[in-house]
Design a protein that fits this description.
InterPro entries: PRTase-like. The protein is an alpha/beta fold and about 190 residues long. Helix content is about 40%, strand content about 25%. The two termini are about 15 Å apart.
């Protein structure tokens, strides 16, 4: 898979990359390549292809960190609730770490409360305002993350808000977040890749 460079304002000191371009379902005039990438992302969210994605992520981690991989913590941006976080990230994080040799940070992050998921939905202004009022609390184990090199994973990056908020929280407790890896980077203008 070719990696797509990701730019998030304020995160220029980090290497950010994505495996796929994600075109939301409202973008209709796309080719078979974009439809395949979109389905790959949907399958990941449904837990159908996590072993294959874990292999790609592990390979990218080893490429980036080499022999230092055993000192790197792999941590997923938490999902919207603890239940969703466990469904989507627990086994995936464990498999990525088993394949790469990275340290699994999953059990050192807890989510309490719940907020609505946003991917795949076209939100009206009133729905978006309601979502901003909802909240969940993400608790990170400060003693675990302090002075650790951390790679942050998220399935889809659109504006980078979730990545930035989670990275800032990790860095406040003393972690050194060096990079972010995403399965998909949201794009709105289709460019064929074949």
């Amino acid at each position: 898979m070719n990696m797509v460079k990701v730019f998030i304002k304020g995160q220029e000191d980090k290497e950010l990359s994505s495996f796929l371009r994600y075109y939301p379902t409202r973008i209709k005039n796309v080719g078979i390549d974009a439809l395949f990438d979109r389905q790959t992302i949907f399958d990941f969210k449904d837990g159908c292809n996590q072993p294959q994605v874990a292999q790609f992520v592990a390979k990218e981690l080893v490429r980036k960190f080499g022999r230092k991989i055993g000192k790197v913590v792999f941590s997923c941006v938490p999902a919207s609730s603890q239940e969703r976080n466990e469904e989507r990230n627990k086994a995936f994080s464990a498999l990525v770490c088993k394949l790469s040799g990275a340290i699994d940070g999953f059990s050192h992050v807890k989510v309490s409360g719940e907020r609505s998921a946003v991917h795949g939905t076209k939100m009206k202004k009133e729905v978006r305002a309601k979502r901003l009022e909802e909240s969940n609390t993400i608790e990170v184990d400060a003693s675990f993350f302090r002075n650790k090199i951390v790679c942050v994973w998220d399935d889809v990056v659109t504006t980078g808000t979730s990545f930035c908020a989670y990275t800032a929280q990790l860095e406040r407790v003393g972690a050194h977040v060096t990079n972010g890896i995403f399965l998909g980077k949201t794009s709105y203008r289709y460019v064929p890749t074949y």
